[in-house]
Amino acid sequence: MFAVLARRLKRLSPRRRLQLGLAGVLVLVLLFAFLFIRTAAVDIDAQSSVTLNLRELQKMDAEWDTAILRAHVGPRSSNRALTAPLPRMRELMERLHDALPMNRGPAAGAAYDRLALAFKYKEQLVDAFGRRNQPLRSALLYLPPAVASLKTELAGIGGALAPARIVLRLDASLNDLLSQILRYNLSPSDKLAARIRDTLGDIEAQEIAFSPAIVEAIDAIARQSRIILVNRPLENALETSIAATNTGEAMDELGRQFDRAFDGVLLERQRYRGWLVAYSAVLLALLAWAGQRLRRSYRIIGEVNQRLVAANENLEHRVAERTAELQAQSEQLELLAQHDGLTGLVNMRQLTRLMEHALVRSSRRGTVVVVMFIDLDGFKAVNDTWGHATGDVVLQEVARRVQARLRAEDALARLGGDEFVILLEEVGSADGALRVAQAALDAIRSVDQANGHPVVISASIGIASVRGREGLTHDPEQLLAAADKAMYQAKQAGKGVFVISREAEWAPS
Ligand SMILES: Nc1nc2c(ncn2[C@@H]2O[C@H](COP(=O)(O)OP(=O)(O)OP(=O)(O)O)[C@@H](O)[C@H]2O)c(=O)[nH]1
C-alpha cells in the first residue's frame, strides 16, 4: 500500500506534493491536539466541588431532621432552627444544578429533579410543621404548671367556698386530664382523645360551683388541652410525611449518578491516553521513516555530486586538451597562412607585412630597404620535359640554395609559380645589394639536376630600393612593382641578369 501511495505521490507536481505535505502535518497536529485535550479534559477541582457540595447538603439535611425531631419532642419550639439552613441548602442545590452538564444522559437530571421535588415538598411540610408546633409546644409547656396552680388554689381559699365533694371531684378530673394529655402527647389515639374530651366536659360541668377566677383558669386549661388534642396528631402526621420525603435517598441517588459520570470521564481519559500513546508511536515511526528517506536522499545527492565533480574534472581535462589541439591547429593554420606550402618560404601576405615593418624601421633609422624580384628562366621547359613533380623539386632546391646564401635577418619569399622575392634591410651600399643578387643568381644556376633529371635554369632579377624617410612615401606594392619592372627589364635584356631600378636609392657613400 505504501509503495502504491509513494508511486502516486511521485506523479504529482512538487507544488501539489508540498500542499499535500502541509495538509498532512496539519491533520497530525489537529489529531494530536484533539487527543491531548481529551486526556486533559478532567476537571478534578470541579468534581471535588460537586462531591463536597453534595456532602454538605446531606449533612445539613441530617441536621435539619435533628432540628425537626428536637422540635417534635423537645420542651421548646424554635422555628428559627427549622428555617435557618434553607438559604444555604438552596444555594447548594443551585450549584449541583449547574454541575449537571458534567453528566451524560438523562439519569442525573432525573435524580436531581426528584431531589428538588422532595426538598420543595419537605420545605412545605416543615413550614406547616412549624406552624403547628408553635401552639402545641406552648400548650404543653402551659398545662402542667397551670393544673398544679389550679389544684393549689382548690386546696386553699378557692376550694373552701365550694362543696368538698365537688372540689375533690374537680381535683381528680384535673389529675386525669394531665395524665391523659401527657399520654396523648406521647401516643395520640382517637380513643384517648374521646376520653380527654369526656374529662374536659366533666371539668367544665363543675365550673358553676367555683369563683370566676377558678372558672377562668379552668377555661384556659380546657382551651390549651383542646389545642393539644387538635395539633398533636396533625404534627405527628406532618412528621411522618417529612420522614417519607426521603431526601437522603434522593441525594444518594444523585451522588451515584455524579460518581458514575466521573468514573466515565476517568475511563474515557484512560482510553484516550491509550490512543495518544499509540498515535505517538505511529508518529515516531513516521518520523523515523522520513528521516531514513532523507538520509537516503542525501546519500544519493552526495553520490550524484561526486559523479558530477568527476565528470566536470574530466570535461575540464578534455576541454584543455581540445583547446591545446585547437591552439596547435590555429598555429598551424597561421603558419600555413604565412608560408608557401611547397618551399616553406614566407608567402606574399607575410612578405607584405615584413616589408611594411622594414619600411617603418628604415624611415626611423634612415637605412636602406632592398627588394629583389626573382623570376626563373627556363622553368617551363623543366615542367614540360620532366613533369610537374620535377618542377616542384627544382623550386624547393632553388628556395633552399638561395636561402643558404642570405643572412639570418634577410627574408626570402615565394610569390607563386617560379617567382621569388628577397627582402634586405640595412643594406650598406649598392654593391652589397648587387653581391647578394649575384649570389642568388649563382645559387639558382647551380641547380642542374632534379629527381635524377638534368635541368638548366637561370633567373632574371629586378632590384628596387628605398632609403630613410622616403620609405614612408612608399608602400610594399609600389616597391614590389618597381622591382617587378626592373625584373621585366632583365628579361628583356636577355635573361640571366639583374637590373637595378632607376628609382633605387642607396646610402650615401
Ligand atoms: N612544377 C611547378 N610548376 C609551376 C608551379 N607554378 C607555376 N608553374 C609553372 O611554371 C611555369 C612558369 O612559366 P614561365 O615563367 O613562362 O616559364 P619560363 O620558362 O621561366 O619562361 P620565362 O619566364 O619567360 O623565362 C609555367 O609552366 C607554370 O605552369 C608550381 O608550383 N610547380
Automatic annotation (TrEMBL):
Keywords: Coiled coil, Nucleotidyltransferase, Transferase. GO terms for molecular function: diguanylate cyclase activity. The keyword Nucleotidyltransferase applies. Its EC number is 2.7.7.65. InterPro entries: DAHL (IPR045812), DGC-Regulatory_Protein (IPR052163), GGDEF_dom (IPR000160), Nucleotide_cyclase (IPR029787), Rev_trsase/Diguanyl_cyclase (IPR043128). Residues 367-503 form the GGDEF domain. The keyword Signal does not apply. Residues 305-332 form a coiled coil. SMART domains: GGDEF. PANTHER family: DIGUANYLATE CYCLASE DGCT-RELATED, GGDEF DOMAIN-CONTAINING PROTEIN. This is Diguanylate cyclase. It comes from Massilia terrae.
